[in-house]
């Protein structure tokens, strides 16, 4: 629970280290090279490289190689770098106490040349769009919520314009001096209609927690719907299994790491940063660099898994779900057998036991992707207040599913299809509960729906 105020960012800040106490250490730091990323908008927001050279120059060949950057030679630790960024950061947006002051701050920074005009227009539009989405909820504190959350968002976006953040192949969630994890939760929370949201087979999440405590690794094989997926997962589990969401590591594509309006939310999650197969050849001359970057990221994940007690979320489709162009119906995108097999093998070669669980997620109404995959950064976005769902199935063992297969290729395909079918089954139950308004009655023998936040008298309405 957080206190809403006109300067909400301070709610996420832990006590700062004074500038004089910043010392060198033999660990990682983040470069100040420019970068850009995928975004949250309500109506339409399209940014193109031709419109803003100062932002999208990062998409050039020489700069793209720095998108996911090794930081072994840096002299400051990540926390020290974050402290330095906070110390040097302006308070232009944090000082705003009204909507008028906040919007005026955007224009002031633009006129001063510190904020690119296209980013400024996107920030202003984002404010109005987020406000409209929160008003959909009917929450009597909508204006207070919007000002509080958007003050924090615009402040973080402007910080990244001042001092761009570069993600390492393995990025650990930044919780201090600014708590980016709670920042993301607070932003997405009022978009979730908890009265029309459900969790399937909630007891299995306790089973997963027990295995993590025993030092085992967990792999959640999931469909992927929006950039808000991590926050939705965490919000639906926070009243009963908050540790799972905070510990979870996400396999993240480069598009959520490269736009100032999305980067602050990514910074609050544990990430293994990779280039999606769907965008591997968008710029042919970068394909080799992307493959090498992915190899480095897989090595980072192998190191994590060797230590055990890791929970990893991955979408083997390589991207977000899309609606059927003919019917408009949403469904999980097909899984890529090669990606899934690589992950399974990686788990098998770690010292700790590994377990694979299918996971279905339904939340596309909150922040749907464009109907088709786009190569360029900058896409039309929508945001709304809506019910969401999460459902987990029992562990699926490769040997049990593939016992009758004749060769490894057949086994790989059979296992992939089995996982996909289970995720689709659970997804359809969630769709019946949420979109067809069947609620808890949509439960089946394989999917038992519940609202655990209600059972614990901790109903999370948009606050």
UniProtKB/TrEMBL annotation:
Keyword Membrane among UniProt keywords: no
Residue positions of motif HXXXXD motif: 224-229
Gene Ontology molecular function, alphabetical: glycerol-3-phosphate O-acyltransferase activity
Single GO biological process annotation from the record: phosphatidylglycerol biosynthetic process
SUPFAM superfamilies: Glycerol-3-phosphate (1)-acyltransferase
Enzyme Commission designation: 2.3.1.15
Subcellular location: Plastid, Chloroplast stroma
Pathway of action: Lipid metabolism; Phospholipid metabolism; CDP-diacylglycerol biosynthesis; CDP-diacylglycerol from sn-glycerol 3-phosphate: step 1/3
Catalysis: reaction(s): sn-glycerol 3-phosphate + an acyl-CoA = a 1-acyl-sn-glycero-3-phosphate + CoA
Residue ranges annotated for the Phospholipid/glycerol acyltransferase domain, each copy included: 218-364
PANTHER family, sorted: GLYCEROL-3-PHOSPHATE ACYLTRANSFERASE, CHLOROPLASTIC
Protein name per Swiss-Prot or TrEMBL: Glycerol-3-phosphate acyltransferase, chloroplastic
Organism, scientific name: Malus domestica
């Amino acid at each position: 629970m957080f206190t809403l105020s006109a300067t909400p960012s301070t709610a996420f800040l832990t006590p700062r280290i004074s500038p004089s106490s910043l010392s060198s250490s033999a660990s990682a730091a983040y470069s100040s090279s420019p970068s850009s990323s995928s975004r949250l908008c309500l109506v339409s927001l399209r940014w193109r490289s031709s419109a803003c050279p100062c932002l999208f120059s990062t998409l050039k060949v020489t700069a793209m190689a720095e998108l996911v950057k090794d930081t072994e030679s840096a002299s400051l630790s990540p926390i020290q770098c974050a402290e330095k960024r906070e110390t040097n950061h302006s308070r232009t947006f944090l000082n705003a106490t009204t909507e008028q002051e906040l919007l005026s701050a955007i224009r002031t920074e633009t006129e001063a040349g510190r904020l690119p005009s296209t980013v400024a227009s996107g920030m202003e539009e984002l404010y109005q769009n987020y406000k409209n989405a929160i008003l959909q909820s009917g929450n009597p504190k909508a204006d207070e919520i919007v000002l509080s959350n958007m003050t924090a968002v615009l402040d973080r976006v402007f910080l990244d314009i001042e001092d761009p953040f570069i993600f390492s192949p393995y990025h650990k969630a930044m919780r201090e001096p600014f708590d980016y994890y709670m920042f993301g939760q607070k932003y997405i929370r009022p978009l979730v209609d908890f009265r029309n949201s459900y969790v399937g087979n909630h007891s299995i999440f306790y089973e997963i927690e027990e295995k993590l405590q025993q030092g085992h690794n967990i792999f959640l094989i999931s469909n992927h719907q929006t950039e808000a997926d991590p926050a939705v997962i965490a919000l639906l589990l926070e009243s009963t299994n908050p540790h799972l969401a905070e510990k979870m590591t996400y396999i993240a594509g480069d598009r959520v790491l490269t736009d100032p309006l999305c980067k602050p939310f990514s910074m609050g999650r544990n990430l293994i940063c990779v280039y999606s197969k769907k965008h591997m050849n968008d710029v042919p001359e970068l394909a080799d660099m992307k493959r090498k970057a992915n190899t480095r990221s897989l090595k980072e994940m192998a190191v994590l898994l060797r230590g055990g007690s890791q929970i990893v979320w991955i979408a083997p489709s390589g991207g977000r779900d899309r609606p059927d162009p003919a019917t408009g119906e949403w469904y999980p995108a097909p899984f890529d057998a090669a990606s899934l097999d690589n992950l399974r093998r990686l788990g098998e070669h770690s010292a700790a036991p590994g377990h694979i669980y299918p996971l279905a997620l339904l939340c596309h109404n909150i922040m749907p992707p464009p109907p088709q995959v786009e190569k360029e950064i900058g896409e039309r976005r929508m945001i709304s207040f809506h019910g969401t769902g999460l459902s987990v199935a029992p562990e699926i063992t490769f040997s049990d599913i593939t016992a009758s297969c004749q060769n490894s290729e057949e086994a790989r395909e059979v296992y992939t299809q089995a996982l996909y079918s289970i995720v689709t089954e659970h997804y359809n139950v969630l769709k019946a509960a949420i979109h067809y308004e069947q609620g808890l009655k949509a439960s089946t023998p394989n999917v038992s729906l519940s609202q655990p936040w209600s059972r614990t008298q901790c109903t999370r309405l948009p606050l």
